[in-house]
Records
---
Amino acid sequence: MSYEICLDSGTEITLVTLLQYRTYGGLLEGLPTHGVNRDLIAGAMSIARSSYFRFKNPHLIPPIETPINVPKEKWILDDEDWRPAKLPAIVCVGKFKSYQPVRDPNESYSIAVIVWFQAEFAMPIDPAVLDQIRGLNWKTVAIDATD
């Protein structure tokens, strides 16, 4: 069974592979902070680049960071990086394919790697994220390829 998405532009894309893991799987104690979250997002992008070696620039659907209500005097440091906040629980790294190239008609297809965060393991893809994927300009996020 395949998972297909029709982009707002009319381009049909198919989810080829999906890597998922818990956002805070390595957080052993304490609360997540804005600084930790920034590092986790960078780590997810690094995993996307290393998992799909052709992609130097995977596309990030920016996650919503939710503040954790802790009085500022209880922060470890009085600095924005130490502001308690959380990201959605699951990191998703998806490789998507269109059977049409975007630039070179001599290529067989186009592919893109998209990174997003959502509350639960997929499938399905979170509806808000799916809306953002549908709105992507495929020509700017995809590269052409041939096997």
---
Amino acid sequence: MRTCSPAVALLLAAFSLSCGDNGPTAAPTPSPTPTPTPGLGSVVAGGHNGPTEITFLSAEPAPGSTITGCGRDGSGCSGRVQMRFRLLSAVGGPVLFSTAFLHATNKIACERGTTGPFQLQPGVPTELVIVYDQPDSACGVPATISDMNLVVEGPVQIASFQEWAIRYELRP
């Protein structure tokens, strides 16, 4: 049986792939069922994996918005959505990169944003700003965004994944 590092396994789990011969695994179902966070509209926290706490703080434009002028391939939406997250690690350590995705109801990642490397300090909240500036033309517009996720890649004491239900309408 093949194996891979916990950090690679976490990243692969975010993309529904596997590291061994056992086939894909299902994402964990949060318990209890998540409820909307007050003041954040329709953003609902979902599954989480890893030791780093990831909290959604805000988005511009606000969740629930219709974004027009995206064109048929989504390129007109590039850079028009920005989100803030808070990361909190008990032990701290290096983050190699973070990548956030906005998925349509067809499960294609319509927009993606990525950071470079940075350092988390033990017990100190770090604010992270992601600009979704990498559209995927396979998404097709119009599209309804139904969920997002954030992958924090680093050593096992840092690598984490968080998903949320969120809604945006992308229009040509």
---
Amino acid sequence: MPEDVFRWVVAVAVVLAAGSAIAQAVILFAVYKAAKEAQKIGTDVKAKVEPLVKQAEAFVASASTLVGNGNRIVEENRPRVSSIATDAVKIMDAARQHADRIGELIDEANGRAKARIVQIDETVGHAVDQVEQASDALKNAVLKPVKEVNGLVAGMKAALNTYAQGGNRNSPDHTTQDEEMFI
């Protein structure tokens, strides 16, 4: 290769190397500026997020304490809760038994009340029948002598009328009228 060409190639290579070094320096400077901006933004974000992180840490700590207390309370009260649940089941069973017994007693009382009502109804019916019989007997006992007395009075009246008329027989008109009244 001739020396002139070699020098030109080396000169172009040096220019290219210098250009790439300048380009790398520009890119490096741009990266540096971007890093500074990112650092500034990161600092701002850190300043804003740091209180939130502290609050989150406090919340997690209090939640952890709360969960621990809850677990402790549950563990402490587990036998009591179990005992209460057992007692509640026993109470429900006893209440169910009592309700069944009360239902049976009500059914029995209802049956007895119905039987007693039937008995009272029969007694009242029998009493009414006896009162009717006594009423009929009293009516017959009172009316029979009254009818007999009425018959005697009617006979005496007829005898007195006949005696007052002098023993004359009634006219057929008068007799017909008395017979019509009788009928």
---
Amino acid sequence: MVIGNMLSDSGQQYVANKDDKGTWRILDTWHEDLKMLNADDDIPDDSTSVKILSEGEFIALIKTAGSLGVLENATFGTGEAELESIILDRDQEIQKLKEKILALKEKESELKRVAERSEDYEIKEKEIKSAYDLKVLAMDKIERLVSMQDLSNLSRD
């Protein structure tokens, strides 16, 4: 029995196989070249019924087929597609939090300036109060001296 007839009876036109070096071989089981082979014959890599793909080429092919919708319900081992939207959401959340932090830092800086002005204001207010107290004390002493002078003038008369 010829290998080509045996493979064509399986119903699948293409069969894929990966070797231990990461090379993929895709065999067209309905190809005319296979009808000439015996069941024990090896199919050479240079046969027109064989397509050879590297690991990277095969992964690119599967990813592209998945993104185009050719593969229904395709899931990829790394889960990158599912995580991309989560990562994007987290990046947006981080950006919003950075903006909030910046706004809070600006507010803190403004409050510090107001607090510094308040301290200066309190110091000046204390100085003014002290000057006022000195003025009141001086006026009080002057009034006493004037009163004593008046009393002294009255007692002489």
